[in-house]
């Protein structure tokens, strides 16, 4: 996806616009550029769906937008607040952003990745449907899947969530595999892979919202009590609810951190690989003496970065899953007040009143 | 920067696609795999436990066998000893009996010999007496010519008989 984008550049302009190339890849688009053979550009045109408050619903294919004057009163904004997005041109010349439900490159990438994930996991699950627990363990791809699943469940979900881990394991596994697959698909530059899915903040935000709702919908009473009435001296929570305020902000910073972490890591990785690719085309213009060694060096670094990004793809999926698991675990605290107070009470009281003390503690909590 | 502003349309697409995927995988995908892994782990644990128990039993059987063997050896030794004792006893008994019966035979033979000897002596005495009577007849016939002599003779003989009795 990178090389063709550059190859078409010299035809129009002799300078390599690195910024344009990098952001052109990182950002979403209304068509999916597949390859450029000579002067011929092959891209997949995607359906555009718009709802404008002024003119209602609009459906058309994105190839109609190729001209500079746009189509049906809509055009892709060249600059301004909505640069790169579809805007409606008002009669007075101002641009109005409609509700854009277009099946963009990222949206299609999400659908492709989802289908692929479903196929992979359901094929694996089919093996298990057809076998008994007493059969020998699977090999090959199913064995690999089982290894990763078991690793995530045993190393991430079980220790982080706690005793209720079986309820959340399927969801966390789905999150993990969705992110991992999307990350890897983002690194493969050929259609149908190549959409920068996890490097899109809308996607990572949605994933973080899944965690956010799972944490806060299934959080138990103890969790909400610790937020709204934490176990601290009274002047910290009344009359000014200082700590509850911090805790409530904390509810929202957690998914925000998840969103930005995944987005920033993937975006940064892609930006570095693209920059290294651009080095080839920039130095090629400086002549063969500089261009040849720099190309070799650039390719070497690109290979290195791709391996690193493969590692990052795994690590970020792992971290997202682990933090989600930890947040879910934090939303299920044990009622630990009795056990906390008990030792101090025991140290004060001799053993004769032991049972009475425990009863009192359980009553107060 | 617009890269950092989430696009509503993308979120909606993501919600639809991911919603369906999450629903399918959470309901029918991963639980099957994790359940199976759990079940297999359970099965492996059970098998290990069973193997451990079987080993323990095997060890128990081994010791039982050893004990049985030992017991049998002791029994064997006891029986052998008893047999030897019995043999000795029988031999001694036989010897005693042989000795007894030998003694008896010898004593019987002696008695027989004694009786036969007496018989022989008796017959010898009778013959001697007969011979003596015949000799005496002949002598008497010759001597009993005078009455004096006859009378003295008769007296003497009566005396002899008297004293002899």
Strand content of chain A: 5-15%
Shape of chain A: globular
Q: Tell me the major beta sheet of chain B.
A: none
Largest sheet descriptor of chain A: 3 strands, antiparallel
The whole-number mean of residue pLDDT values of chain B reads 89
What is the count of DSSP helices of chain A, taking H or I runs of 4+ residues?
12
Domain count of chain A, please report it: 2
Spans where pLDDT lies below 50 across 5 or more residues of chain A: 1-13, 338-365
General description of the model:
Chain A has 365 residues and is mostly helical. Chain A has two domains: 47-102, no CATH class; 105-335, no CATH class. In chain A, 61% of the residues lie in helices and 10% in strands. Chain A contains twelve helices and eight strands. A three-stranded antiparallel β-sheet of chain A has the order 4-3-8, with no helix packed on it. A three-stranded antiparallel β-sheet of chain A has the order 5-6-7, with no helix packed on it. A two-stranded antiparallel ribbon of chain A has the order 1-2. In chain A, helix 3 crosses helix 9, helix 7 (201-218) runs antiparallel to helix 9 (242-284) and helix 9 (242-284) runs antiparallel to helix 10 (288-330). The radius of gyration of chain A is 27 Å and the shape is globular. Mean pLDDT of chain A is 82; it is low at 1-13 and 338-365. Chain B is mainly alpha-helical and 165 residues long. Chain B has two helices and no strands. Chain B starts with 7 loop residues before the first helix and ends with a helix. The mean pLDDT of chain B is 89. Chains A and B meet through strand 8, helix 4, helix 5, helix 6 and helix 7 of A and helix 1 of B.
